[in-house]
Amino acid sequence: MGASGTDDKATGPNQNSGTRRNDERTFSDLQSDFIVQVDGVAFALHKFPLLSRSGKIRKLVAEIRESDASQIELSDLPGGSDVFELTAKFCYGVYFEITTSNVAALFCAAEYLEMTEDYGTDNLLARCEVFLNEIVLQSLEKSIETLHSCEDILPYAEEMKIVGRCIDAVASKACWEQGFSSSNNSDHLIYQKESSPQQKIGDLWAEDLTILRIDLFQRVLGAMRSRGMSSERIGGVLMLYAQRSLQSLIEFDSDILSRPEGNNLLKHEQRLCVETIVSLLPVGKNILSTSFLFGLLRAAIIVDTTVACRLDLERRIGLQLEKATLDDLLIPSTQIGETVFEVDIVYRVLLSFFQQNEDLLISHPACDSNSPSRKSVVRVVRLIDAYLAEIATDVNLKLSKFVAFAELLPDNARATDDALYRAIDIYLKAHPNLPDLERRKICKVMDCQKLSQEACAHAAQNERLPVQAMVQVLYFEQLRLRKALGRPYTDAENVDQCHPSQRTASNPTLPRDNNTSLRRENRELKLEFARMKTRLDELEREHENMKQEMEKTASTNGFLTSVSKRFGKMNLFTKNNSKESNIKLVQQKPEFRIPSRRRRHSVS
Are strands 41-45 and 34-38 parallel, antiparallel or unpaired? Predict the structure, then answer.
């Protein structure tokens, strides 16, 4: 009779499930007694089968008898016309199948129509209750499917407590399957530490959860957390759910930005989804992968979440920035006419990293190269140097932002400034019209003493560098050469060129011959430095004179030819000669070429 209440598969033969007559659904060839309207669909029915099962229809039929009407309307029936058709089949004894997808709607409709035991034994409400208890709530997968079906019949399913029962079943069985007890005492939690990350998440039920709407998923996760599921496993489930529900956003599909206004509702749902996922993220370092957090941040930027949501993600990323990759930092900008990448966001993440690791840096001094904080800072500095080289080619990147990045990084974290020099050179190459004052400013963030011999050789011939930077590079290179010859300088012989008498007074025990030798070397170095400055001044004046001559006689071929020859001899401004010189240098010292990504410029 009626529906199956013991299994989610049909066990009897299928009978006539109803026919249509002039847009009316009928269940018998006999003339109908009255018509029931549900969501615009008319059902031609007979009073006796329905009155014997439904208390509500019995009351409605009693009301229409007084008005001689032959039609009733059910405007707010849970599940609509499709569910009412199943209830009518039950009343007529037509066999149909109760499944995990329709049991919640049938339960709510049976409650609405008052199909209780008062109006017939083994009525529809009782059968749905048995199916829920014996079939749905005994299986994690079936509980998830039924919970998913409740999304279309809220708030009725909530009032019937179907949602709460399914959530409790999912949470308790998920924790049990993952090796947890349902005890509230955390000391009794059973946790299989040897499980791999994929085993921790679970291949079946975690994927099943991805079909849930974000509000129900949030409640399921809350129930799991309250039953003692660890943050690592909660994070694994969240990552899987986010990757499935926000895949197009995480991959930064450019079509999303050009969607028509008609999809504002979809964008609102995606914004709500991202903000909810961020609010559910477990607290702690390295629980979630840094790449995943960057993916969430990209999605948050695209759907324009709240500022608090994005700042929370930036703070979480900053806590574990040393695990990031260069591709993670390259967040495409959504603003037209701005920089290619979101530079300000990466700067805030970097600032957050140093703020959150300030105590560690104090407790582990820079001399402790094996400390965890020291290693983290070194990795981050290398990452940012590579990032600066990537964004340096952007013509819209302001000098102040580039300098802000470089100055934020601690000097003692770099063993060499070669990578920073490479980024500066790329920036100068991409901004050829940069004033001399700004070129000096950007070069000040680089410590010429920390350049390798190959980098110094390249910088000494680099026409893009200001004259002062080239002089400084040459000076320190000469210091390095003298030291290599076994004639090291004392601390007094530095860039500031301290007076020899001060050095003698501070070292009274040095032999007289040694002092005389040091004074002589110091005088020779000063003379050489003075000659170099004089020569550079002459070159600058000659350059200005040639520029004025070119403006006056730009149409004279003979003069242009002579100017071209003079340019070739000086090798300061001719682009082709510069390239050939640099290429020759790189060929001689191939080890100076820092490994870079193929899509970016190397030092040239």
Answer: antiparallel
